[in-house]
Amino acid sequence: MSDQHADPIQQFVQFLYSDLPAENEFETARPKLAHYSSLFVLESMLKNDELWLSNPLVMNDYEEVAFGINASLRAIYQHERLLNSLQTKQRCDLFLASFQSCYDEYGTSEIAELYVGCFSQYDDREPNGKLSMWRAYGADGGGAAIVLDTAKLTSVLQRGLVLAKVVYGTAQERLAWIDRLFSSVAEFLRKVEFDDAAVPTLAKEVFKRIVLASIFSKDVGFREEQEWRLAYLKDRDPDSQFEKMKSYSISGRGIEPRLKLNMGALSSIFGMDYSYENLADAIILGPTASTPISVMATRKMLQEFKKTTLAKKVRGANIPYRRQ
Length: 324
Description:
With about 325 residues, the protein is of the alpha+beta class. It has 13 helices and twelve strands.
């Protein structure tokens, strides 16, 4: 490597994330993002200045998150190039045991500490939003969407939160990415000197990279959603700044865990204005909920919440859609 004296673990971590395309990262793209929800959730979030994230175990596409993690465990035991790069049977056994341990711990405890918020990239040329999103996530047209302008964020999200674009692919393409990752890890390990004590950490970092990729990947059939995700990762929150925001909500499926990001607390943590009145570009009522009187009532609701600036941003989706 270019710096022979650099920490091999630090080199390794930088290498693992070097394939991330800049256009998929918040820092480069700064898109407008629409969060579709029911009117009940909209009211609760705006009243309490919160943005709700869900645990993947209760999300409709949990299997999408689990796909890469499960596939990686099956693949790593059969990846001869990677296993050979560890040089000795002792290192190989230690690496596999450490990777398996990370997998087991993730499935039994860490997954419960993961929270994800889903957004669809918003285009000003489609001011009504996407009909497919209204059907799937906006109460079949009877909900609402908050459009957030991430260009108004003046610094990078960090300390617990990751905002990035979802990568779409077929099952074969996603499996091929895992194979390429393991092959490139093997190539890296052949070039860098490391001792036995580093092996568990190397395995853990590979697993963490797999988890991140799994959170931000989805089957190609969902491509039209143009999804971005905001994920809370506990291992990136060493000071537990978000612990007090972990809560619950009640839905038709029962009581569900939620991470209720308080916008005022985020403003303090990140040193910028995270208020809805600053970030929200629009609040759009769904096509079956956007009658003139509903728009008027929503504005009245926001005025009662003392969000007069936000009240002026309410409008209805002008799509001729009726529920079946």
